[in-house]
Structures are given as structure tokens and as C-alpha cells.
Specification:
heterodimer, A: alpha/beta, eight-stranded mixed beta sheet, six-stranded mixed beta sheet, B: two-stranded antiparallel sheet, 2 strands
């Protein structure tokens, strides 16, 4: 009798448990750096996800709960955050974070715990041996960022380009990108000069570049200090054009660079110049929506690229969740699998940055459409079709 | 590389080296008098540049609150010491030196916040604001351990550097600054374009080196400092207070750091953490002078500047490696040539 009662209770518990699950909301975890050195970027990601959540927080009657954590710019804290989200908050999908090492760390947790992950910073892990990655990366690859601007140089008749960049991995990425583009018939890279963010002078490096007589200069720096080579090259009388990557899209770069930075062309996500895009552009409509909702939520203009990555990550999730809900219930491993497959199944999804086509073969799913060329004119970035 | 490029590189190197000269002289001065290798020297230089930029942008510089806090802490410490030793009658005097004087420039900055003062005035206020920084740090951090070993002083100094960098981020924020050119002037020397800023840097370095030389040789304070540097115990016997001499050395060091900061602000973007590397390279210059000789330090610093310039031209990724590798032969040479001098002090 007692055993029967116990069994009965277990059945009831199961039924009710299952019922509770079916009425369950969808839980999404979000990690960014709100403190520490990466926080100036991390804050933009945060504003982006806030805008995204305001844009849509319900799918087919399922409420979406967004659980946000701070990783303090620390990859090990990102790992902990990811574990906490998976084990305690039982999330169905997670999004993060504002630094590349932190994003790699979260991806590792995602692969281990088989929970879908949307990376909003570049990732550099190999695809797992099982051939089934549990994550994607939203941003454009550094190679693509350089390739697009190198193609533009070629279009403008530039044959040779000098390179000055940071003496760190970012400088390497840009230089290697330019070298790869060179093989495809883009301008020949004539120099590989490096400087550090805290250097007092780049005169020697600039002289060396000028000695190689390039038609133009590619700037492999980032943020404020990317202005230093441009200032120095102009001071030494260099007349050629300047080119760069999205790393130059920074208010302080424009302020410090002043007249020397005027006319510099960089590759950028279309979200930077949404208002200037033609109506036929894929990101015009969704980008306008994004800027509107961003302004409403954050009371400021979205003038960075980072908040757009958060927003696109959210769009990818929203689209996938619609498909996944047809086959599985939130909170189950089947739902996680269905979500991941839906992300791969979704073709030509237009976001504010790019048209996304993900496959299990690579974490990245963007093509050359994800970058437009913008030019600094009178201190404002202007779209160059 | 042709001769013109070599000339431009030399010019660039001399300008960088001149900044190093100012800082390295400060290193030697402070070390000679107090045996402290003042690692945060470069940070003070960077703070000067950031302060100047803040004034230029009509913002209240972070240094103001920094100095106010430090002045308060220093005067509390000083009063505590005075009361404990039963010298309460010297409290007003301590308050004047540790609280009132440092707060005068702070008050001026407060009062004029939001007004764009003319450039020379801005520079003067910046220097006045920075001037108490090193002496206050000396009072707070190094006074209680003034007789400790050189190694302990160095370790504390390194810790102080990290604390200051953190404070720099807190007070100035993560963005870099670059101020307007001090002089709108450029000329050609033997076909090489030379900017007014460069001339000003080199001129100032020469001027302040000369001033230091005159100070040490012609004034009583200078001679007292010189005496303390030569032999602390002997100087003490002659009635020179080592702690006061130390404060004096830090004040002069602060001045040198402030001047170099003002000079470097328009020629390069300075971040809150830019100072360390500048200081470290100046330190190599000071090492060449064996941390004792002012003239050799000056020559060594200019040499480091020129070496850095040529190294950056020849192989920019390895620039720092080349500059800091020079320490090895220099230290070898010094350790062979200074043995005698050290024996003398042992006696």
C-alpha cells in the first residue's frame, strides 16, 4: 500500500513537473564586462542587449527571461559565470562576452555542457573533435575586416600599401589579413612596422614606411593610439590615403587624430552608418529599428559597433527559438539540440551587421556583405558605396 | 637609410632623450639623497600631461582631488608624530607645509574650473599642482621606513607605482590625451624639419640641467643635498636633517617630472599608464650614470633616446628588446669600474 502511494506520488510529481516545464519560460544568460579594463566596450554590449530585450522578449507565447552577469573583464570569471548560468539558472542559451579570451572561455563551457552559445566577440578555438560545436561567433573575422578595405584600395587604384600596427596580436591579425589579401591580388604590403600603445614616438617607423614609397598606409592600431602613425606620417609629408579597420571607429581617435585623420577610410559594420544606407540595403530596415529602440532604452545614440553584435546575437536566437519550439520544450537537452540545429538551418538572416549563414564547420557565419567602407569627413563617418 | 633619414632619426632620438634626461636626473637626485629608486617617477610625468589636458578641456583635473586626499593624509600623519613626541607647538608649521601649501594650487584650480586660462598660466598651475605630489608621497610612504634597506625601499616603490597607476585610472579615466602644441613654430636645420616643440624640449632639458648644476654648486640648500648624497651620517653630524633633505630632493624631482610632463603632452598621446615605460627607459639612462653621476646620466639618457629611435627604424618589433638589452653591457661595465668606489664607502 505504502509502495503504491509512493509510486502514485511519483507519477503525480512527474505529471506536474512536466506541466510546469511546458509552461516554463525560456531562460537566456548574458555575460559582459561591466567592470575592469574591458568595461568601456562591455558597457556598449550591455546597452545593445537591453535594446534587444526591449525589441522582443516573447516568442510564441513563451516569455524570455534574460539573466545578466558581469565577468569583470576576467576570462576565469567568464567561465564561472557560464557555469553558474548553466547549472543554477538552467538557461537554454547564453550570449557573451566583451573580450575575446572571455568568449573563448564561455565557448569551452558551452561545448562541455552542450548548451548553445552565441559569442559576441571573436573566438579562436578549434572546432571540437566530435564535429559538433555548441557555439557561434557573431562578429566579422579580422581577415574579412582587412580584406574588405584592401579590396577598396585596389578599386581606388592603389598598388602598394605600407603597414604600421600595434606590436600585439591585433597588429598581427591585421598584418596577416593584409598579407592574405595581397595573395588575392590586392595591394602589395611594403612594410611591417610595429609600435606599442605607450610608445612616445613613431617617427622612426613612419620614416621606414615612407622609405618603401607606398601609395597608401594601412593602420593596424586600435582606438585612440591608432591616430599616432597618421599624425606622424602627415607631419613627415606623406600624401597618400589612409586606411584602417573597425578598430579605428572611436570617438577619441577622431578627437586626437584631428586634421591628420581626416579622410581615413575604414571597413565597418553597416550599423555604424544605418541612416546613410540606401533603402535596398539588407540592414537598413532592421538597423533603423535597432537605432530607434536603442535610443528609447538607453537615451543615447548607438554610435558603436559592439551594441549591434549583442542585438544580432539576440536576433539569431529569436529566429532559432521559433523553430526549436516546434520540436522540443524549453529547459530540455532536446531543446538545446534543436536550438543549435535551428541556428544552422536558418539561412540569410539579415541583422544590423551582416547576413548570417552559420554552419557547424566554422564558428563564423558572415561574408563580405557584413562590412561597408566609411570615410572620416569633417569628424563624421560617411558611407562610401 | 640615407643621411637625411639618419639626421631625422637622430633629431627624434635627441628629443625623446631630452625627456629621459629630465626624468633620469630626478631618479639620480632622489636616489642619491634618499636611497630610494622612485619607480612612480614616470607616472607623475604622465599625470602632469593628463592634468594639463584636463585644464585645456576645461575639466577639473583628477590630480586636484588626488593632492587634496594625499595632503590630508600626510598632515594627519605628521600631526600624530608631533603629538606623540610632545612637539605640539610645531603643529601649525606642519599644517602650513603639509596642508595649506599643497592646497593652494588645488584651490586655484577649483576656483577657475570651467574657465579656459591662457596657455602659460595653465602650464604654471599644472606644475604647481604636481609639485607637492612626490613630497607628499615621500612623507606618507617613505618617511616611516626611511632607514630601511635599499631593496625594501625599491619594493615599496614598485608597490607605490601600481597604486598610482590604479589611482590614475580612477582619476583620469582610460582614454589618452594630447594637448595643443606649446609653440606654433617650425624651422629647418640643415634641411631637416624641426618643430618648435622639439626645440623646446631640448632647450628645457639643457636649461634645467644647468639650473640643477647651479643649485648644487651655488646654494646652501644644494650643498646640503649634495652633502647628504655624499655621506648621510656625515651630513647629519654637520646639522643637515636627512629627512628634510629628502623632501627637498622629492620636491625637485616633482618639478623635473612636471616639466617633462608638460613637454611631452603635445608631442604624444599620453594614457594614465604611459608613464611607466618612459620612466623605465629614463632609468636605463640613470643606470648608465651609475645612479650617481649627473653628467653621465644626461649623456646616457640622450644615448638611450637615439638608440631607441634607430632601433625602431631598423626593427620596430624588437625596439624595446634592443633598448633594454643595453642594460647588460652597461651593468657589466659599471660593476667592473665601480668596485673601487664602493670599497671607499665601506670604510
Amino acid at each position: 500500500m505504502r509502495r503504491l502511494a509512493l509510486g502514485f506520488a511519483a507519477v503525480i510529481a512527474l505529471v506536474f513537473g512536466a506541466n510546469a516545464a511546458s509552461a516554463q519560460d525560456i531562460n537566456v544568460g548574458f555575460v559582459t564586462s561591466l567592470s575592469g579594463p574591458a568595461s568601456s566596450i562591455g558597457l556598449n554590449y550591455e546597452k545593445g542587449i537591453n535594446a534587444a530585450y526591449a525589441y522582443q522578449s516573447e516568442v510564441d507565447g513563451h516569455k524570455i527571461n534574460l539573466i545578466k552577469l558581469d565577468d569583470g573583464s576576467d576570462p576565469s570569471a567568464a567561465t564561472e559565470d557560464a557555469r553558474k548560468l548553466v547549472q543554477q539558472s538552467h538557461i537554454d542559451l547564453m550570449i557573451g562576452t566583451s573580450s575575446a579570451p572571455g568568449t573563448n572561455a564561455m565557448l569551452t563551457v558551452a561545448n562541455d555542457s552542450k548548451v548553445p552559445f552565441i559569442g559576441i566577440s571573436p573566438v579562436s578555438l578549434p572546432i571540437p573533435a566530435s564535429g559538433h560545436p555548441w557555439g557561434i561567433a557573431v562578429p566579422q573575422t579580422p581577415n574579412l575586416m582587412v580584406k574588405v578595405i584592401a579590396d577598396r584600395m585596389k578599386r581606388e587604384g592603389i598598388k602598394t600599401v605600407g603597414f604600421i600596427g600595434f606590436s600585439d596580436s591585433w597588429g598581427d591579425l591585421v598584418y596577416n589579413g593584409a598579407k592574405a589579401a595581397e595573395k588575392d591580388g590586392d595591394p602589395t604590403v611594403t612594410s611591417n612596422e610595429r609600435y606599442a600603445r605607450t610608445d612616445t614616438s613613431v617617427t622612426p617607423q613612419a620614416l621606414k614606411v615612407i622609405e618603401t614609397k607606398p601609395d597608401a598606409l594601412l593602420d593596424g592600431g586600435s582606438a585612440t593610439q591608432a591616430a599616432l602613425p597618421l599624425l606622424e606620417m602627415r607631419k613627415l609629408g606623406f600624401k597618400g590615403n589612409f586606411y584602417g579597420t573597425p578598430a579605428l571607429l572611436n570617438r577619441d581617435f577622431v578627437r586626437i587624430g584631428g586634421k591628420a585623420a581626416e579622410g581615413v577610410q575604414v571597413s565597418a559594420g553597416p550599423v555604424i552608418v544605418t541612416a546613410q544606407l540606401p533603402d535596398s540595403h539588407f540592414s537598413k530596415k532592421i538597423g533603423t529599428d535597432f537605432h530607434d529602440v536603442f535610443k528609447k532604452v538607453n537615451n543615447t545614440e548607438a554610435d558603436d559597433g559592439f551594441s549591434g553584435y549583442s542585438f544580432d546575437g539576440w536576433l539569431i536566437f529569436l529566429n532559432a527559438v521559433k523553430e526549436a519550439l516546434k520540436t522540443a520544450k524549453p529547459g530540455t537537452p532536446e531543446f538545446h539540440e534543436a536550438l543549435m540545429q535551428a541556428i544552422y538551418a536558418d539561412k540569410d538572416l539579415a541583422g544590423v551587421h551582416a547576413v548570417y549563414n552559420f554552419t557547424p564547420k566554422s564558428y563564423y557565419g558572415v561574408d563580405a556583405r557584413s562590412l561597408v567602407v566609411v570615410k572620416l569627413v569633417d569628424g563624421k563617418w560617411v558611407y562610401q558605396p | 637609410m640615407n643621411s637625411q633619414i639618419a639626421a631625422i632619426l637622430t633629431m627624434d632620438g635627441i628629443a625623446t632623450g631630452a625627456i629621459y634626461v629630465l626624468i633620469a636626473l630626478g631618479f639620480v637626485l632622489i636616489f642619491a639623497v634618499t636611497r630610494i629608486i622612485f619607480v612612480p617617477f614616470g607616472d607623475i610625468t604622465a599625470f602632469t600631461a593628463l592634468t594639463l589636458a584636463d585644464l585645456e578641456a576645461k575639466r577639473l583635473p583628477g590630480t586636484a582631488s588626488m593632492i587634496a586626499v594625499l595632503a590630508l593624509v600626510a598632515s594627519l600623519m605628521q600631526i600624530a608624530v608631533l603629538l606623540r613626541t610632545g612637539a605640539a607647538n610645531r603643529v601649525p608649521r606642519a599644517l602650513l607645509y603639509y596642508l595649506v601649501l599643497p592646497l593652494v594650487p588645488v584651490a586655484i584650480v577649483w576656483a577657475t574650473a570651467g574657465i579656459l586660462l591662457p596657455a602659460p598660466l595653465r602650464i604654471l598651475i599644472t606644475i604647481a599642482l604636481i609639485l607637492p605630489l612626490a613630497p607628499l608621497l615621500y612623507r606618507i610612504v617613505f618617511w616611516p621606513i626611511a632607514d630601511a634597506s635599499v631593496l625594501l625601499l625599491l619594493i615599496v616603490s614598485v608597490a607605490l607605482h601600481f597604486a598610482l597607476v590604479g589611482m590614475g585610472l580612477l582619476f583620469f579615466g582610460p582614454e589618452g590625451v594630447r594637448t595643443q602644441s606649446l609653440v606654433d613654430f617650425s624651422t629647418d636645420i640643415a634641411g631637416i624639419p624641426v618643430s618648435g616643440d622639439t626645440l623646446l624640449i631640448v632647450g628645457s632639458a639643457a636649461f634645467f640641467s644647468l639650473l640643477l648644476y647651479l643649485f648644487f654648486n651655488l646654494t646652501l640648500y644644494g650643498k646640503a643635498l649634495h652633502a647628504t648624497a655624499m655621506n648621510r651620517t656625515g651630513a647629519r653630524l654637520m646639522g643637515i636633517r636627512p629627512l628634510r633633505a629628502g623632501t627637498m630632493a622629492f620636491l625637485l624631482g616633482s618639478l623635473l617630472a612636471a616639466v617633462s610632463g608638460v613637454l611631452i603632452a603635445p608631442v604624444n598621446t599620453i594614457f594614465y599608464d604611459s608613464g611607466f615605460l618612459i620612466g623605465l627607459k629614463a632609468f636605463v639612462g640613470a643606470i648608465i650614470g651609475g645612479l650617481v653621476s649627473f653628467p653621465v646620466t644626461a649623456i646616457g639618457s640622450v644615448f638611450i633616446g637615439i638608440l631607441e629611435s634607430f632601433a625602431a627604424f631598423l626593427s620596430s618589433p624588437f625596439k624595446e628588446v634592443i633598448v633594454f638589452s643595453i642594460l647588460i653591457p652597461v651593468l657589466l661595465w659599471r660593476s667592473y669600474s665601480v668596485v673601487e668606489a664602493e670599497d671607499e664607502t665601506e670604510e
